[in-house]
């Protein structure tokens, strides 16, 4: 059996027939050895997977809990948002009613103003003759202004003519 040590059954325990022999597939010892090797390989693989799967499972549980918290928090925020929007819409509806009332009142006031402006336009048309009279008054006042200016000049000249002799006469008067 020294030639069989380097064969594929070199890992098999001593005394077991190698795989080249005719009764190798039927031997209960070879089958037990193969099942033992298979279970050891499976356990080694399972231990490797345990190093990956258990931490991943733990991380998934933590992430799932955090996701549930986020969804719950979002649902609560959306609930408060819906309440706030409902309140604001109610207030806005009452304000819109107020605006509608004010606009109808403003429309009535504009109609009244339009009537007043029409009345003023008619009154201005009746004031046209007064405009002619006002222009005549303006010309008369200009003429009075010129006359008053002329009188002022005459008074200034007269003051110059009387004040010099009166100054001389005042020096002889006792009072």
What does it look like?
With 175 residues, the chain is an all-alpha fold. The protein has two domains: 99 residues; 36 residues. The protein is built from two helices and no strands. The longest helix is centred in the middle third of the chain and has 99 residues. The relative contact order is 0.02.
Fold topology:
Layout: H1 28-126, H2 128-170
Structure summarized in a few sentences:
81% of the residues lie in helices and 0% in strands. The chain has helices at residues 28-126, 128-170.
Question: Keywords for this structure?
Answer:
175 residues, mainly alpha
How would you describe the shape? Answer: elongated
Average pLDDT, all residues: 81
Main sheet attributes: strand count, strand direction, barrel closure: none
Strands, total number = 0
Helix content: over 70%
